[in-house]
């Protein structure tokens, strides 16, 4: 087989065979196929696309390029969730304990963040003592006992994706639906997941800005799952403004804990209950979505979900005093109020700008080596649709720098205003089962 023939075939819009895709993935991973030929094939895929079958084969080949995690020693039907990433997205800290509170095991492998704010592990490490470096045995034992464990990815998972993603990043081939879908799914499947709820974000702060693109990505990932015999539900959720009111590491843990204690932050609560309900049904805990939603909602009110959160944090070395008394979480030195310069309504809040402002404060990393500052972040005081008057506070920046000029400018610039109330912001756009 010759790589040049594969490039030509795809360039001419033809579907590649299983053997051809395997040849490409193996050859590129072991270094036999050079970057220039892989780049040419990626660009051909970018323009000509892939069938769902080709995309599933590519995904499986990337899974098979490295180690996979065997979760068969976990009792019960394990479910996983994956979000395509959004600002203020702390749903994992709500959904994990919520699903665990009804006895469904959640075994979550997560990464660290690069960009806006920290990743799941960085946020959890805002809780003093929290240890995300569990051995495989410890991870499995914690899931069996507490029904929830969150650990950093270990092992050489989907190395083909790692190599291809780096190449896509520098060859303008990231935003291709089959390439994104196979990249995300290969990592999920290598982590041993059989049942996955995907939270595909859509809007200004999301990877996919339009509903059409987000739907296409969700459909593609669902098709990969189907082709490879996995159960997938995809929820398309809104990212036209940050989720909830808090952005930053300790801030997001605090808001998640408050929801688990029964606080009503509507968008965050609705999305968490939606995803958790699909997970509970997939795992077989309930026969239908309505029943699951009802039971899970009860556990937010009666303290069971918060109890599951505490047990999970304690089992991984975290100081539970920090989540029982949320004011003891890391906190910044200064709290700077940003005021509205208009009367009217908030018509939009650009999530990406809020995320960048949080990063400027130190909540995220620009390079892998950067240290996260767990105490800094942003609290939104207004959300889309809220009425504002001139000089009213629209957000608060929690900063260790007394005058973080650039972050203030970025956060203030994220808010758009209108004279008339905007149409109500949607939380969930669509569910694909
Ligand atoms: N996230 C991934 O893991 N892969 C992509 O291709 C895009 C986003």
UniProtKB/TrEMBL annotation:
SMART domains on file: PYNP_C
Protein's job: Catalyzes phosphorolysis of the pyrimidine nucleosides uridine, thymidine and 2'-deoxyuridine with the formation of the corresponding pyrimidine base and ribose-1-phosphate.
Alphabetized GO MF terms: 1,4-alpha-oligoglucan phosphorylase activity; metal ion binding; thymidine phosphorylase activity
Family the UniProt entry places it in: Belongs to the thymidine/pyrimidine-nucleoside phosphorylase family.
InterPro entries per record: Glycosyl_Trfase_fam3, Glycosyl_Trfase_fam3_N_dom, Glycosyl_Trfase_fam3_N_dom_sf, Nuc_phospho_transferase, PYNP-like_C_sf, PYNP_C, Pyrmidine_PPas_bac/euk, Pyrmidine_PPase_CS
Protein source organism: Pueribacillus theae
A biological process from GO: pyrimidine nucleobase metabolic process
Assembly mode: Homodimer.
EC number: 2.4.2.2
Gene Ontology CC: cytosol
Protein name: Pyrimidine-nucleoside phosphorylase
Ranges where the Pyrimidine nucleoside phosphorylase C-terminal domain occurs: 345-418
Main enzyme class: transferase
Catalysed reactions, as listed in the record: uridine + phosphate = alpha-D-ribose 1-phosphate + uracil; thymidine + phosphate = 2-deoxy-alpha-D-ribose 1-phosphate + thymine; 2'-deoxyuridine + phosphate = 2-deoxy-alpha-D-ribose 1-phosphate + uracil
Keywords: Glycosyltransferase, Metal-binding, Potassium, Transferase
Pfam family, one: PYNP_C
Cofactor(s) it depends on: K(+)
């Amino acid at each position: 087989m010759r790589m040049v023939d594969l490039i030509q075939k795809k360039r001419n819009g033809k579907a590649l065979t299983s053997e051809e895709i395997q040849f490409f993935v193996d050859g590129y991973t072991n270094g036999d196929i050079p970057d220039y030929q892989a780049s040419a094939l990626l660009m051909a895929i970018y323009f000509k696309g892939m069938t769902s079958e080709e995309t599933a084969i590519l995904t499986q080949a990337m899974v098979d390029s490295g180690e996979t995690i065997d979760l068969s020693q976990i009792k019960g039907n394990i479910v996983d969730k994956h979000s395509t990433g959004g600002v203020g997205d702390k749903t994992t800290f709500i959904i994990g304990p919520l699903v665990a509170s009804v006895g469904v095991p959640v075994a979550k492998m997560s990464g660290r963040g690069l960009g806006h704010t920290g990743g799941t592990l960085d946020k959890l490490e805002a809780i003093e003592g929290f240890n995300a470096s569990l051995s495989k045995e410890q991870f499995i034992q914690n899931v069996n006992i507490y029904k929830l464990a969150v650990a950093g990815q270990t092992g050489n998972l989907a190395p083909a994706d790692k190599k291809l993603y780096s190449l896509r990043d520098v060859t303008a081939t990231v935003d291709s639906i089959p390439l994104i879908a196979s990249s995300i799914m290969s990592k999920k499947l290598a982590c041993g997941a059989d049942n996955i709820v995907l939270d595909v974000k859509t809007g200004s702060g999301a990877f996919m800005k339009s509903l059409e693109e987000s739907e296409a990505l969700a459909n593609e990932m669902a098709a990969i799952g189907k082709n490879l015999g996995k159960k997938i539900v995809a929820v398309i959720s809104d990212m036209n403004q940050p989720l909830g009111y808090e952005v930053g590491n300790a801030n997001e843990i605090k808001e998640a804990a408050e929801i688990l204690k029964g606080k009503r932050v509507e968008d965050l609560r609705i999305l968490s209950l939606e995803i958790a309900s699909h997970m509970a049904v997939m795992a077989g805990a309930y026969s239908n979505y309505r029943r699951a939603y009802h039971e899970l909602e009860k556990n937010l009110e009666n303290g069971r979900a918060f109890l599951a959160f505490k047990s999970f944090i304690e089992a991984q070395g975290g100081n539970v005093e920090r989540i029982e008394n949320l004011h003891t979480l890391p906190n910044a030195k200064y709290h700077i109020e940003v005021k509205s310069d208009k009367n009217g309504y908030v018509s939009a809040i650009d999530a990406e700008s809020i995320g960048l402002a949080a990063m400027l404060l130190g909540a995220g990393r620009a390079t892998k080596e950067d240290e996260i500052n767990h105490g800094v972040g942003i609290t939104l005081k207004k959300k889309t649709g809220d009425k504002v008057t001139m000089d009213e506070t629209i957000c608060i920046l929690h900063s260790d720098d007394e005058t973080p000029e650039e972050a203030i400018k970025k956060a203030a610039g994220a808010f758009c205003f209108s004279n008339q109330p905007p149409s109500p912001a949607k939380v969930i756009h669509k569910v694909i089962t």
